[in-house]
Amino acid sequence: MDLCLHSSDQSIRLRPGSVLGMLWLQTHFEPEHWSLLAEGMVCLPPSDAEALEQDATAAGLHVSQLPALSPTRQI
């Protein structure tokens, strides 16, 4: 997987899954955001994440979407 999109609340967390994914992100984001992108710390609104996914897929990247984790229950 080149890019991973993780649902969380009202946003989508973006995480590169390969070197190709990170390089592609570097062409779409300013250098000051690269370290946050590399660490998977960038969250996008769902509409922006959808546009990014379409663009990445059109560029030949493999994109994975993961649903939000279910809330934990205390015992």
Q: How do the strands of the widest beta sheet line up side by side?
A: 3-2-1-4
Question: What overall form do the CA principal axes indicate?
Answer: globular
Number of helices: 3
Mean pLDDT: 89
Total number of beta strands: 4
Biggest beta-sheet profile: 4 strands, mixed
Radius of gyration: 13 Å
- The helical percent reads 25-40%
Which percent band covers the strand fraction?
A: 25-35%
Structural class label:
alpha+beta
Measured between the Cα atoms of the first and last residue, the distance is 35 Å
Order of helices and strands: EEHHEHE
Low-confidence stretches: none
Summarize the structure in words.
This protein has 75 residues and is α+β, with helices and mostly antiparallel strands. The chain contains three helices and four strands; from the N terminus they run ββααβαβ. The chain has helices at residues 19-26, 34-38, 46-58; strands at residues 3-8, 11-16, 42-44, 63-66. β1 (3-8) and β2 form a beta hairpin. The N and C termini lie far apart (35 Å).
Compile the SSE list and pairings:
Elements: E1 3-8, E2 11-16, H1 19-26, H2 34-38, E3 42-44, H3 46-58, E4 63-66
For the structure shown, list the relevant keywords.
75 residues; alpha+beta; four-stranded mixed β-sheet
Offer a quick outline of the entry.
Helices cover about 35% and strands about 25% of the residues. It is of the alpha+beta class.
